[in-house]
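Hmm, how's this folded?
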Amino acid sequence: MTFSRTAVALTGSLLGLAALTACSTEEEMKAVDPAVAEDSASSAPSDAVPTPVPAGEVRTNGLVTVLDAGEGPQMCLGAVAASYPPQCGGPAVEGFEWGEVGFEEASGVRWGSYALTGTFDGTAFTASDAVPAALYDAMAEPEEQPLGAACETPGTTDTAKATPEDLDATLAAAAALPGYATAWLSGSTINVAVTEDAAGAEAALRETWGGPLCVTTVEKTDADLNEVNQELQAALGEQLLTSGSFAPDSLDAQVVFDDGSIQEWADATYGAGLVRVSSALTPVE
């Protein structure tokens, strides 16, 4: 069984004016920007990558798509293609019954969104409980908080020079800065992170932008994070579901299951705090 997985391409571009990542298909994932910073502080990943398997019951981290295209139900922990019917794959789900609510059917494919509880042996998931989306309490899931401004009081120099065209030009100029790391919006404020010469970066950006602006310094460039992202994809293989940067100086990586050992490996390989590992399956407390 091959798990459907996708990674987040670390282009440093602004998408949706909030996230610092751009989603990609599995094929696009394999062609992540190969740019590598010459002085990257990351090291080559260790060969001893853990492959933990839960000892007891686990639950999905929220709703997941369960899909049967004729070969039995599969649990889609990774990306789901936005087609009709949808397309995705993942571990086989045993002991699963569709019930009377919570699924659709078209072209011989049946699918629905469920919160699952059961056991996972590293290959197949045996369901002991399945809550359809219609009965799931989404309020129980914590909401992700967008990045705020990088400075307490964003400076403004010329409110007339803050049009959408000025915004586009400024983001393009930011991406060309020496030591560019990333950029994001918080309200009407453009936030730019660089690894060197923040004052020079701000002066350059003021040529196209007079609205609220924050320039901050970080340790890792966009190219540094791209390099680590490529290494994670190669090292974790099918354990990795998604990876990408949602904040400066960090990568978020979601794996099928982690008991803490993958996080420990990432900390030992790349330094504590650079890669934040989350698990799609979590132990039932």
Remarks:
- DSSP finds five helices and 15 strands in the chain.
- The chain has a mean pLDDT of 84.
- The first helix runs from residue 26 to 29.
